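Example record for the data management plan.
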Amino acid sequence: MSKQRCEWCTSDPLYQHYHDHEWGRPVHDDRMLFELLTLEGAQAGLNWLTVLKKREGYRAAFDNFDAEKIACYDQEKIETLMTDSNIIRNRMKIYSAVNNARRYLKIIDQFGSFNDFIWKFVDFVPKNNQWLTQVEVPTISTESKIMSNELKKHKFSFIGPTICYAYMQSIGMVNDHTKKCFLYHDN
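Corresponding structural encoding:
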């Protein structure tokens, strides 16, 4: 008998692994927080599976999400990234990754860590929701709107409230496994 997962999770093994081992689980490592923020921005207008399939390509192309290196990317590096079929070749999203690396480093300078900055939007405690079906799961929340506005004040890009909510789900700030999902009991 197969495991019952959240309705959004297809039969794709990569998707299932992500659902089973990452989505909704709290992340506090700054590098991983930056990686997921970058990938969520890359997802804009696409589906998450497309991004997951390119995740290893992103890790290779973006120096394993080393923000200090990415913040130094120049136009020549950006043009090289535009030719890399292992990532989403959208100029605005690539510029956003470079910009956000610079902003991320400023946040660390100001707050001590990105974790301390980002987790304050849920008072450092994951929000465990209790949805019966996927239809009930929102795409934005009050917290994601506040997070988006705050990140925009710090000049981050590709960071609207919908992206922020997806980010909150991916880093476990919000646990939206539905009641029918085998991982719901972790709530």
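Summary line stored alongside the record: The first strand starts at residue 127 and ends at 128.
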